[in-house]
Specification:
Length: about 150
């Protein structure tokens, strides 16, 4: 059985929200980055889960964060790629460590949140570069993405 959400040959991959991740994607739709935090030990949790990975307390609290952080790693994507990304290459994919200590993957976008196609270089990105959150609309899916902090 084919899954239309995973048709990599013709479309962008899309998230498949479940009970644990739906609040995260709903937050992105509203332009809010939500990260879970344990209500007991206060540990920040990523990826979404039903219980705290530190103390096993259930029902971590979805908490809005600024999305500010720094580059923990990055790469420049070049061909080959999934067909849907072929016209977007090259671009920068980031691993951003939020100030809360969790790490998320996202695209490097321009200051307005638009796609940033590079010249094959890293657009001045390096380990530790301070980043600001933006939201990028990828074919109707709102994704947390980052731009260099001003
Ligand atoms: Zn905990």
């Amino acid at each position: 059985m084919s899954d239309p959400g995973l048709d990599f040959a013709t479309s962008f991959p899309v998230p498949m929200p479940d009970a644990d991740t739906q609040p995260f994607w709903d937050g992105c739709e509203r332009g809010e980055l939500l990260i879970q935090r344990c209500g007991y030990c206060k540990k920040w949790l990523w990826q979404p889960r039903p219980i705290c990975s530190g103390c096993q307390t259930p029902d971590p609290v979805w908490t809005r964060v600024s999305g500010a952080g720094f580059v923990a790693s990055w790469t420049v994507l070049r061909p080959p790629s999934l067909p849907a990304f072929a016209q977007k290459l090259p671009y920068v994919l980031l691993l951003v460590e939020l100030d809360e200590g969790v790490r998320l993957i996202g695209f490097l976008v321009d200051d307005a949140g638009g796609w940033l196609q590079t010249d094959g270089e890293a657009e001045g990105i390096h380990m530790g570069t301070r980043m600001s959150l933006r939201f990028y609309d990828q074919a109707g899916t709102i994704l947390p993405s980052w731009t260099v902090a001003s």
